[in-house]
Write a structure and sequence with these properties.
The protein is an alpha+beta fold. It has one domain: Ubiquitin Conjugating Enzyme (Roll). 26% of the residues lie in helices and 16% in strands. A 4-stranded antiparallel sheet has the order 1-2-3-4. β1 and β2 form a beta hairpin. InterPro entries: Ub_conjugating_enzyme, UBC, UBQ-conjugating_enzyme/RWD.
């Protein structure tokens, strides 16, 4: 009996992350196909240089046709996780996009509508109607 698509894909991605991770990305725990914990380090020369962020990736059997959900200390507003998701994206791509987003920051501050979002947010970030304020990142 063959493995489902999502388990084949995640097996390959995990092997690639373990053998050739993007700079500043490390695996903390990835013992199953439901949840992975990864650590991302801020890029050198940026506002977040050497700061570390722990992220939890949650997968459904619809992965890679459906994006993973990602958790840290809040929901992540990143277009490739929602409207611009494509099955060619990988966990490594998402990590690099998060590093890029962090690298473009010029101030450590919450978004202007953060308090309102927290009050009304769904438990799943995929149920949020995101408004992407900066399409250049």
């Amino acid at each position: 009996m063959s493995k489902p698509l999502f388990s084949k894909r995640l097996t390959k991605e995990l092997r690639d992350l373990a053998t050739n991770p993007p700079e500043g990305v490390s695996i903390e725990d990835a013992n199953d196909f439901k949840r992975w914990q990864l650590r991302i380090k801020g890029a050198p020369g940026t506002l977040y240089e050497n700061e570390e962020f722990e992220l939890e990736f949650r997968f459904t059997p619809s992965y890679p046709l459906e994006s993973p959900e990602i958790y840290s200390n809040g929901h992540i507003c990143l277009n490739i996780l929602y409207k611009d998701w494509s099955p060619v994206q990988t966990v490594a791509h998402v990590c690099l996009s998060i590093q890029s987003m962090l690298s473009s920051c010029t101030k450590k501050e919450l978004p202007p509508d953060n308090d309102l979002y927290i009050k009304s947010a769904h438990s799943s970030p995929k149920k949020t109607a995101w408004a992407f304020h900066d399409e250049n990142v």
